Amino acid sequence: MTDHPTRRLVLASQSPARLGLLRQAGLAPEVIVSGVDEDAVSAPTPAELAKALAVAKASVVAARPDTKGALVVGCDSVLELDGQALGKPADAEEATARWKDMRGRAGVLQTGHCVYDTLSGKHVAATASTVVRFGEPSDAEIAAYVASGEPLHVAGAFTLDGRSAPFIDGIDGDHGNVIGLSLPMLRRLLAELGVGITELWAK
Fold this sequence. Notes:
This protein has 203 residues and is an alpha/beta fold. It is 30% helix and 24% strand. Strands 1, 2, 3, 4, 5, 6 and 7 form a seven-stranded mixed sheet that branches. The protein is elongated and about 55 Å long. Keywords: Cytoplasm, Hydrolase, Nucleotide metabolism.
């Protein structure tokens, strides 16, 4: 292992959950929000949409002069249910309807990941998929959850690490992916660019 300064790592996301996952893994990313208009991005499937959004976010931030030399990570999550990609609900009414539709069923949380190496100009991207099995909260529990405001700020109208955790019976796959970022996926993508994740550990 050559002795060289730790590469700058930039997270192109305003998600505190993603930042928390990276910090827990020993990384110390800077945060630069992309400002990408998510509604302007389209793709034929939810998995491809998640990846396209991640690429769009990483590319915009990687093009900024102040990220020269950095590794830029972009992520985006959507919940796939009945073949549809569900992002953040527009309002409380939509969040309530979403939960009444999801309960007792399983969906697939698709999180797109993109790593952009601004030194080489190369980028790699992939989508990680995790099955989420929803419990059966009562109408009153759904109403209380929606009233908390939490589901309005997250893809799929739920979080695995928040108030809706008691309403999720289980998952099949990487729990970090559901929270917003798959660390195993990130390690593989960095390796494709010739970067070992341990090289990025904060000193």
